[in-house]
Design goal:
748 residues; alpha/beta; Rossmann fold; Luciferase, domain 3; GMP Synthetase, Chain A, domain 3; nine-stranded mixed β-sheet; 21 helices; 33% helix; 20% strand
Length: 748
């Protein structure tokens, strides 16, 4: 599989038909060369795997998995990003098992993140759950009722028996990976991938490599970009890659850029929001030594590619050696492994302006950039060798004429075999045929696009997936959560969609509301906001409640989300109440970016507001924060909420849950929330102290013994707090009686 006309270095020999073959071949010829270099804190090297070490660890893990009957079975992987994950997934491939990577559950939101994991386990019918002891401790109990899967910890395995591994001969069409699509929590779909699918897609990306290439990645390996581009491609191409934990990048995106500078990296990629985050949090004064001149391929994809994001990044980092032609916009999806179209190394990006009204009518009309109707789109390159990309009218199933917009259909060896255990969806999505064409299946991507000047431009999403901050959300999920938030909301009568507001993609919710004097519309909006924050860590840009019967629908009663979006943007919805997040202000004309201060900015007025504003400024990478500035307007998103929570932990009351930070996404609102929660906590403590004063010394000593606190100590202040803390746990026992044995009495 080598293109002789391309300048890429030689890939693996053509007789190798699987990733296991390639890994074994690389271990023979590049045994001592580093493959994965891990920066645990995003700065310093904390470990690495050479090609030979990966092979030995993979064989040892595979031997253990084979001994447990994993050959041909699904193995659910629960690992944090890093070297252990990389060894584990190759161990699955070596064992002849089917690897099922999954996002680990979030300890802070276990009740919200476990349902998706359970759904994947049920759907995949996994034989084993394989992970680190730390993560498995979180899921053993909750997953036990699901039955058959055996839970295996990496730490419990023997790693000294790689010679006991038995090679599995399955050929290129052997199933090796279930790649679960992100988005829906209740109904995730596993994309069935074979070695042939992976090998072809890796080959198409390898064509853009150059000799001596070094990469760097922070995207987690549960995402197709992180897994295929960050774990598999370096091994296929025989080059090393520097791995940064996602949380280290989110804390300081400049760590990614420093790694590029330090290791003289040639290729690195990220979703659009990653580049935007680098711009927003960059501090020129602290990074004068940054040198990005080695960077020759900056892949941008995995979500809609926005012209403004590319241009801002170029403006910000050209002084540090970044070349505009380095950008390589690309289009792809998990159903085709990863890569469908892309540019050529050194070609640069293409931005064109098209009539928005024409695009709504599925026509392509180029207009000047300053046209009031101009919609700027980024070209996503050309189809890769060995595949066919067709723009199709989804109703007639015929290719559209040049100048038309249609659904993007793909025919390629990279296209997956279908969805696991979903034959009807597989037939509809992966077995599509063009009208009048007897042979050949196509993948229906669900995305709308067109070709212009040889480039693929993506115009929208037929399937209406909502992508915010790199996370995928199905509108049906959000709409169901909204519907269930309050009895005033009519069943099946809401629309959730995204649109670009203030320069970035934002969530808008529209829902029909019952006309009743029993409900206050403000209370309905408050419940919707609370449920979206709790369920998804989302704060919408706008919530609109509309009268019954006014939501746009098709003749058969289906919700027309795109039409609703158009009516919202045009201000044509009949509205009962419209709520917009506090602090949403248009940016000043001529401002350099979205974080520019607004004319109405009010400085912090209390020490608490000053502390909150300082943390916000650091997390968001802005110079100043006013008390009425909205966290999300300044560039915040759900991925930064957890970081914010930890940074504010010293200020927050003990039992304030993470999602409550989104209830009042302004400095002033959060300060009020913290003060109110503190008052509640102080009142509870006062009540316990009153109980303490009424107790005799004998009763107090007995209570402490029951709670496991040391006896003695008199009636000193700490002694009083010990008894008060024991009272807090209630009469039925303390944290030390919990199932996992990790008592919290001593901590109190």
């Amino acid at each position: 599989m080598r293109c002789n006309s391309c300048s890429a270095p030689p890939g693996p020999p053509g007789h190798l038909t699987s990733l296991v073959d390639v890994a074994r071949w690389r271990a023979m010829h590049q045994s001592d060369e580093p493959l994965y270099i891990y920066l645990k804190d995003g700065e310093r090297e904390s470990g690495q795997l050479t090609f030979g070490q990966l092979d030995r660890r993979a064989r040892a893990i595979a031997a253990e998995l084979q001994a447990r009957g994993a050959v041909g079975e699904r193995v659910l992987l629960l690992f944090p990003p890093g070297l252990e994950f990389n060894a584990a997934i190759f161990g699955c491939l070596y064992a002849g098992a089917v690897a099922v990577p999954a996002y680990p559950p979030d300890p802070l939101r276990l009740d919200r993140t476990l349902p998706r994991l359970k759904a994947i386990l049920r759907d995949a019918q996994a034989r084993l759950v394989f992970g680190t002891e730390e993560l498995l401790r979180l899921v053993r109990g909750p997953l036990a009722p699901l039955g058959a899967a055996e839970v295996v910890a990496l730490e419990a395995m023997r790693h000294d028996r790689p010679s006991q591994w038995t090679p599995v001969d399955g050929g290129p069409d052997r199933l090796c990976l279930l790649q679960y699509t992100s988005g829906s929590t209740g109904n995730p779909r596993g994309v069935i991938l074979t070695h042939r699918n992976l090998m072809h897609n890796l080959w198409t990306m390898h064509l853009q490599d150059s000799d001596g290439v070094v990469g760097v990645i922070w995207v987690p390996p549960y995402h197709d970009l992180g897994l295929i581009g960050g774990v598999f491609l370096p091994l296929y191409s025989g080059r090393r890659i520097v791995v940064i934990p996602p949380v280290a990048f989110l804390q300081q995106p400049v760590r990614w850029l420093r790694a590029i500078s330090r290791y003289r990296v040639k290729t690195a990629g990220a979703p659009t929001f990653g580049y935007e985050l680098c711009v927003r949090k960059f501090r020129p004064d602290g990074d004068g030594q940054l040198d990005l001149s080695s960077w020759s391929i900056a892949v941008v994809g995995a979500e809609p590619v926005r012209a403004e994001a590319i241009e801002r990044f170029v403006r910000t980092f050209e002084p540090y050696g970044f070349h505009p032609e380095t950008f390589m916009p690309a289009y792809g999806l998990a159903e085709a492994v990863l890569h469908v179209t892309g540019g050529q190394r050194g070609e640069g990006y293409v931005i064109r302006s098209f009539s928005g009204r024409a695009l709504e009518r599925h026509r392509v009309e180029e207009v000047p950039p300053d046209d009031s109707d101009a919609r700027r789109l980024v070209g996503c390159g050309r189809p890769v060798p060995g595949e066919r990309v067709v723009i199709v009218d989804p109703r007639s199933r015929r290719p559209v004429a040049p100048g038309g917009v249609g659904e993007i259909w793909v025919q390629s060896p990279s296209v997956a075999q279908g969805y696991w255990n979903r034959p009807r969806q597989t037939e509809r999505i992966f077995r599509a045929r063009l009208a009048g064409e007897a042979n050949g299946h196509y993948l229906r991507t669900g995305d709308l696009g067109f070709f212009h000047e040889g480039q693929l431009f993506v115009a929208g999403r037929l399937k209406e997936l909502i992508i915010l901050g790199g996370r995928n959300f199905y509108p049906q999920d959000i709409e169901l959560t909204v519907r269930n938030s309050h009895p005033a909301l009519r069943s099946g009568s809401g629309a959730a969609f995204s649109c670009v507001m203030e320069g970035r993609e934002q969530l808008v919710v529209v829902h029909e509301c019952r006309g009743s004097s029993r409900f206050r519309l403000e209370d309905v909006v408050a419940k919707i906001r609370r449920e979206l924050a709790t369920e998804y860590l989302l704060t919408p840009y706008a919530i609109l409640l509309i009268p019954g019967g006014t939501l746009p629908r098709t003749s058969s009663g289906k919700i027309r989300r795109r039409a609703c979006r158009g009516m919202f943007l045009a201000g044509r919805l009949k509205v009962l109440i419209e709520w917009r997040a506090e602090g949403w202000e248009p940016a000043l004309a001529g401002a350099a970016d979205d974080s520019s201060p607004t004319a109405r900015r009010v400085a912090p007025r209390t020490p608490l507001e000053e502390k909150i504003a300082a943390v916000w400024a650091d997390v968001l990478g802005v110079d100043r924060v006013g008390v009425e500035d909205n966290f999300f307007q300044l560039g915040g998103h759900s991925l930064l909420v957890t970081q914010l929570y930890f940074r504010l932990s010293d200020l927050l009351p003990i039992d304030l849950p993470l999602e409550r930070l989104l209830e009042q996404p302004t400095v002033a609102g959060l300060a009020k929330l913290i003060l109110a929660a503190r008052l509640e906590q102080d009142a509870a403590l006062a009540e316990r102290l009153q109980q303490l004063e009424a107790m005799s010394e004998v009763e107090a000593e007995r209570l402490l013994r029951v709670r496991g606190a040391p006896a003695g100590g008199g009636a000193s202040g700490p002694r009083t707090l010990q008894v008060a803390s024991a009272l807090q746990s209630g009469p039925g026992g303390s944290g030390s009686d919990s199932d996992d044995g990790d008592g919290d009495g001593a901590e109190a």
